[in-house]
Amino acid sequence: MRRFLILFLLILPSSYLLSQGSAGSKATFQQRFIVDMPTAGLLKSNSVSLDADFFSNGGLMLRLTASAFNRLNFGISYGGSKIIGNGNVEWYKLPGVNLKIRIIDEVKNFPAIAIGFDSQGREGYIDSLKRYDFKSPGFFVVGSKSFKFLGYSSIHGGVNYSLEKDDSDASLNYYIGFDKTIGSDLTFSVEYNFAINDNSPRALGSGKGYLNAGIRWSLGSGFTIEFNWKDILQNKEPGNSRVVKLEYIQSF
C-alpha cells in the first residue's frame, strides 16, 4: 500500500499533459468502468492511470493500470478496510490483477468488443465467505456502443464469470449500463448487475440485483472525481453505500 501512495505522490508533480479527464463531452480519455463493471473502453497507448476508491468503514482501494498498446491494458490493485479511522487495518487477502484486450473496434453499426480478466472486487473483503462485498468481474466479455445525442451517450452490455463462487450455485453473470454526458465536464452513469452469482441462500444478495449510479466530473490535468450511489435496490444488508473515486491519467 505504501508503494502505491509513494507512486501517487511522485506522479502528481509531473503532470505536464493538461488533459481534461474521462468525463464530459470534451473527455480526453475513455471511460473504463460504468460504475463498478468494465466497459470496452481502454487507456490510450503509452498511458498510465492511478485510481483511488474511498468506501465505507474507512476503506481505500488503489488501482494502477498501464497501456503499452492501444488494444491492451493491464494493472494491479490493492487496499483494505479501516485504513482511515480507528482499529486494525483489514487488508485484502491478495492483490487484484486486471487485463483487458479490445478485440473489435467500434464502427457505425457495431459496438466495440473487449475481453478480459479482473480479480479485484469492490469495497470490503469477507474472509469467511472468500469474497468481496461486491464480487469481482473475473473473466468478462463486454460490448460498448456510443452515439451522439445532446452530447454523447453510450450503452454497455457484458457477461462475466467471477472466481468468487464458494457462496453461490452459479458463477456466470450478466450486466448492462448506460452513460450520458452533461455538458463538457460531467457524465452520468447507471448500471444494473443482475448478480445471478450472488443470490443463493449462502450469498449476500437477495435476488434483486445491484443497481448502481454515479456522476463523474473532469477536473482537468487528467483528473476525474466520481461520486457513486450503490445497491440502490438494497439487494444486500446493510443496503445503500456511497463511494468516492479519484482517477488520474497521464500519457507519455
Automatic annotation (TrEMBL):
Name this protein carries in UniProt: Outer membrane protein beta-barrel family protein
Organism: Candidatus Kryptonium thompsonii
Keyword Signal found: yes
Signal sequence coordinates: 1-19
Keywords: Signal
